[in-house]
Amino acid sequence: MPSKDRAAPFTMRDRLSEIGKVLGGAIDAARDHVPDVRITSDVEVPVYVIHHGSKAEDYELLCDFKKFMAESQSGLLHRPVVKILAGRQDFERHIFARHLREAFSGQFDAVRAIHRAELEAADKRWSLGIPTIGEIVLWGLTSAGGLVGSLLLYLATETSRTAIDRIGAVLRQSMLGRAVAGKSADAALEDLIEEKKSVIDAALARIDVELHPDLYRFAWRGQRPGPMTGINRNAWPLPDFVAKRMKDF
């Protein structure tokens, strides 16, 4: 009969229990340092529709993230407000919505990569201390393939607190996974965006289109001009990169 003073044998179950406590402590510690999602302001992101052919569906989309990226240098999270400027409005909106989602996501990836490279070259990846959600979205997440751009479009089209909470949950899951096990956020982001693609596209299909005088003249060149309803005669001149691209057609 074993002595009452002898310690009980240390079983595999005890070992697993100890490991669970350690991991649980690490998760709790990491959770305390994961920022919550807070939208600070809306920032306009103009999208220029360049009609380069004679048909309504002959167009190219150029997104201007200059102001959005400048505002986001603070590390705060802004909601992009998409503004569509075009030369004609008779294009099919549901097809346009898909094109816009793809163009916005792909072009944002390219702009974000340039900014990240500039920050890394200057040894300024983000501010000192715990990174904000804005910094995590713009520079901390390594996700490519349009995921972050699509995440911003989800923010732009779904402005409810529920949508923001959902985004926050995905980002916190990402940061906790990286802090504890070095896991990527790609899977969670992919699931979220795949689920919300139809919601995003439906919202983009309903978005208002403003006619820009320069884009209008370019779209109808060599043809009988179309309706001018909704044209903004006091619109600002087109950015240089848009005017330059128009010269390529």
Count of helical regions: 9
Mean pLDDT: 79
Q: Classify the helix fraction into a percent range.
A: 40-55%
Distance separating the two termini: 94 Å
| Structural classification | alpha/beta
For the largest sheet, list the strands in their spatial order.
2-1-3-4
The largest sheet is: 4 strands, mixed
- What overall geometry do the principal axes of the alpha carbons give? globular
Tell me what you see in this structure.
By secondary structure, the protein is of the alpha/beta class. Helix content is 52%, strand content 12%. It contains 9 helices and 4 strands, in the order αββαβαααααβαα. It has helices at residues 12-31, 66-72, 93-121, 133-140, 147-157, 161-181, 186-205, 213-219, 240-246, and strands at residues 39-51, 59-63, 77-86, 209-211. The protein has a 4-stranded mixed β-sheet. Helix 1 (12-31) crosses helix 6 and helix 3 (93-121) crosses helix 7 (186-205).
